[in-house]
Specification:
Blueprint (H helix, E strand, L loop, with lengths): L1 H12 L8 H18 L5 H16 L17 H10 L2 H13 L3 H5 L3 H7 L2 H12 L4 H8 L6 H10 L3 H16 L1 H12 L2 H4 L11 H18 L4 H16 L3 H25 L3 H4 L2 H31 L18 H13 L6 H25 L3
Helix pairs in contact: 2-3, 3-11, 3-16, 4-16, 5-10, 5-15, 5-16, 7-18, 7-20, 8-9, 8-18, 9-10, 10-11, 10-20, 11-18, 12-18, 12-19, 14-15, 15-16, 19-20
Length: 382
């Protein structure tokens, strides 16, 4: 009888209920909220579902994120293996290749002025950098945190790994992906506050046709120019442009399909779950995490504002030919930010079609964020 009682007692004590802290329960609640936002509200479900589920699992069963040294049987946890690929910058680079294979750079080629709007939207990165230093973070940590302002999760993970900020990678990545998902909520109030109804109603001229030769030369030229100036950007810019060259060359259809579909979705699963699994209560619930979340929001808001304000300047200089709303798409949440520009413009005038015009700054923002990351790497000698 005592054997049965001891066995039952052991089984009961093996359940998670006896090992969870209040912090674990709080993180489980946060994971459930993220799942609700992704499934019910449709906020970037491809990102939020794996991130939220990784968050859920690690706070129920922490061993899933243990390294071989931490594990009792000497074998690393499943998500730790995935996380190593984040630390080595493999998954973020592959994500960039998939984005390149899925994205049409035609709007950017047709309207090169979009590069200026993409650059202006990086304002949030540099504002957050100096604020992070003011709040007590060292230079490398401040740089890794500030890149959240580009609304680019893969670049945030890439830079945090390269600058040796793996301890902050979880909060940085979750903040970056969360703000990417919340673009439809965060950006519109800022866009409307900085523009007049008359400006939001501006209709832009149709973009010129872009030749196949231009689309093929663009990724090659951008790779050469950017990587010669900032060689540290090669893993991100190079893979982005390689994916786009697959798409535009027309001779490697199988590679294009693989990079933009099967491989892309596999990488999203690995990246999302491992990022979510880095948010155990012990690692996530601290003052630094709160600072990172606030700094990320500030960076994202200033990035949006920077793009819109330069859009207003360009609107004045072109005598009303540019709708300032497309400047907000300069943050590199592709293509969500461009869709938000379209949505806010359509609210002012249902016949206004800004999506393709906004895709120019949107793509420029991806390149701009990668350049900002490369600049920080150069500054810190990585």
């Amino acid at each position: 009888m005592s054997y049965v009682a001891d066995t039952l007692s052991n089984l009961i004590h093996q359940t998670a209920f006896f090992n969870l802290t209040w912090g674990n329960y709080l993180m489980i609640l946060v994971a459930c909220v993220f799942l609700y936002l992704a499934i019910r509200k449709g906020f970037e479900p491809l990102l939020l579902v794996p991130i939220a589920f990784g968050m859920l699992l690690v706070n129920i069963y922490p061993d899933i994120m243990y390294s071989a040294e931490e594990s009792t049987n000497g074998a690393p946890g499943l998500f730790h293996v995935f996380y190593i690929l984040d630390e080595w910058s493999i998954l973020p680079s592959l994500i960039f290749m998939g984005v390149g294979a899925m994205t049409d750079f035609g709007p950017l080629i047709a309207n090169p002025k979009s590069f200026l709007l993409g650059a202006a939207a990086q304002l949030g990165i540099y504002v957050a950098y100096f604020l992070a230093i003011f709040l007590g973070f060292n230079g490398a940590a401040a740089a890794a945190i500030s890149i959240i302002g580009g609304a680019d999760g893969p670049t945030s993970i890439f830079l945090a790994g390269k600058l040796g900020q793996t301890a902050l990678m979880g909060p940085i990545a979750v903040a970056a992906y969360s703000y990417m998902s919340l673009v439809p909520i965060i950006q519109p109030p800022i866009m409307k506050a900085l523009t007049t109804e008359k400006e939001r109603k501006i209709k832009m001229e149709q973009l010129r046709p872009v030749s196949k030769l231009e689309k093929i030369l663009f990724p090659v030229v951008i790779t050469i120019v950017v990587c010669l100036i900032l060689p540290t950007t090669a893993p991100l810019v190079g893979m982005l442009m390689l994916g786009n060259l697959f798409r535009e060359s027309g001779v490697v259809k199988q590679l294009t399909e693989t990079a933009s579909n099967a491989l892309m979705y596999i990488v999203v699963i690995l990246l999302g779950t491992s990022v979510g699994a880095s948010t155990s209560a012990e690692a996530f619930l601290n003052l630094d995490t709160l600072k990172i979340v606030v700094l990320g929001l500030v960076a994202f808001a200033f990035g949006t504002a920077g793009g819109v304000l330069l859009g207003k300047v360009m609107c004045k200089l072109t005598h009303g030919k540019i709708n300032p709303l497309i400047g907000s798409a300069g943050v590199s949440a592709v293509p969500m930010a461009a869709r938000v520009s379209q949505k806010v413009g359509a609210e002012a005038d249902p016949t206004n079609f800004l999506l393709m015009h906004a895709m120019g700054p949107n793509v420029a923002g991806v390149i701009g964020t990668a350049v900002a990351a490369g600049t920080f790497m150069a500054i810190f000698g990585v």
